[in-house]
Amino acid sequence: MASTHTTNLGIEKIEVGQQDGTWGTTTNTNFDLLDTAIGGQVTLTVPATGSTGTPNDYDIPEGSAGDGRNIFIEFSDGGDLGGTAYARITPNDAEKILFVRNSLTASRSIIIFQGTYDAAKDVVLAAGTDAIIKFDGAGTGATTSLMVDNLALSTVTASGAVTGGSFAGLPVAGPSTAGIVELATSAETNTGTDATRAVTPDGLEDWEGSAQVTTLGTIATGTWQGTIIAEAYLPNASATAEGVVELATQAEVDAGTDTTRVVTADTLTNFAGFPGSTAASTTVAGIVELATIAETNTGTDTTRAVTPDGLDGWTGSAQVTTLGTLVGTTFGAEIVETVFAIPSSTTPELDPADGTIQTWTLTGTSTPTDVLVSGESITLGILDGSANTIVWTSVLAAADWVGGSAPTLSLTGTTWVEFWHDGTHTHGALIGFTS
After folding, report:
1. What's the average model confidence in pLDDT over 383-393?
2. Contacts by 279-283, CB closer than 8 A, 24 or more apart
3. Greatest Cα-to-Cα distance within the chain, rounded to the nearest angstrom
4. How does residue 165 score in pLDDT terms, banded at 50, 70 and 90?
5. Cα 191 to Cα 185: distance, rounded to the nearest angstrom
6. Going by DSSP bridges, is the β-strand pair 426-434/414-421 parallel, antiparallel, or unpaired?
7. Nearest to 148 by CA among 130, 129, 132, 127
8. What's the CA gap between 314 and 297, in Å, rounded?
9. pTM attached to this predicted model
């Protein structure tokens, strides 16, 4: 009968009466395998990240050496693997305790499992982490468990309740001694005499304060529930500093010389100098009555003041001869504009500032110029009874005329043309002729 092997370490068990003359070699091999399993340490270079379906396998073969049999495995690489690595211990029925170190570069984690990958049954080991991992050898559904992760016995941190004994031998915490401490109740926190207990966040929330507190930062919210603050702790207000002030008496308000007290609504109402003060005028400051909208529009009252409402209801004045740019304005009546007659010249300047309706009587061959800018226009009536020539090139090119050329002037009436500037060029168009 052939030899068999142990499940967990793959040690060969020689069948009775077998391997005559060679059992010593097999036994020595078994000793070597046991030596590796008990004290073997190896650093393995992970060749690639692998995946959940095709991980990097580390085997415990039957009767021969294998990387997975070592008690300690350090995973390293020859450079950044570019992602999380996957490592699997085989076979999936081998029960094993393994000491592991993740020395992968670029902060790469390694996922260690046994059997078929299951995210709920693997161990994710962060870069730079030492751990003790248990493999339960449960076949394709084997579970991998993290037993110890970066244990530092010089500083023991409990993640849950400490049970199973007393604190005998541990020192009691004090001002200069680290040790165990009991938590204080809210009542003990407010009493403020216990020097052996520690305050909890709940106790601090309920803390009512202490006479020893003499300095505070800026209190942004909350309600002051005390009685008074001693005047000695509050600065006096001045023209350049915030602080506390005293209210002025009526006599002090009327006297008008106190610079340290403040006036109340009552003392201002009864101010001796106010009710009978001089009426306001164009040369004297004083009290003034507000004008109604009707009085504002009548425009003859020199003793009243216009309100914003009155200004909004104002219908205007013939004295208004200049306005700024009107945006979104609706005119409720006709707009009357003076027609501007261009002074006699053969080189006139077409300027919309002179008016948007202009006339020009030719006296000879003429070369006009213009100063129109974006959005401006002029309606121009040209009178020519002598077949004079106009050179338009200083105003616009032929192509900028609607129709592609300048109009022919009437010799018996007025030729009307429109000029406008579109932001790039001045354009022109013939409107028509009048007699």
Report:
1. 92
2. 279/303, 280/305
3. 144
4. very low
5. 10
6. antiparallel
7. 132
8. 6
9. 0.39
Percent share of the chain, pLDDT over 70:
90
Asked whether the beta carbons of 118 and 141 are under 8 A apart, the reply is: yes
* Three-state secondary structure string covering the chain: CCCEECCCCCCEECCCCCCCCCHHHHHHHHHHHHHHHHHCEEEEECCCCCCCCCCEEEECCCCCCCHHHCCEEEEECCCCCCCCEEEEEECCCCCEEEEEEECCCCCCCEEEECCCCCHHHCEEECCCCEEEEEECCCHHHCCEEEEEECCCCCCCCCCCCCCCCCCCCCCECECCECCECEECCHHHHHHCCCCCEECCHHHHHCCCCCCCCCCCCCCCCCCCCCCCCCHHHCCECCCCCCCECEECCHHHHHHCCCCCEECCHHHHHCCCCCCCCCECCCCCCCECEECCHHHHHHCCCCCEECCHHHHHCCCCCCCCCCCCCCCCCCCCCCCCCCCEECCCCCCCEECHHHCCEEEEECCCCECCEECCCCCCEEEEEEECCCCCCECCCCCCCHHHECCCCCCCCCCCCEEEEEEEECCCCEEEEEEEEEC
Residue found by looking up tokens 């009536």 in the block: 381
What pLDDT is recorded for position 154? 46
CA distance 429 to 396: 11
Residue 389, amino acid:
T
pLDDT per position as a tens digit, 44-81: 999 999 999 999 999 999 999 999 999 999 999 999 99
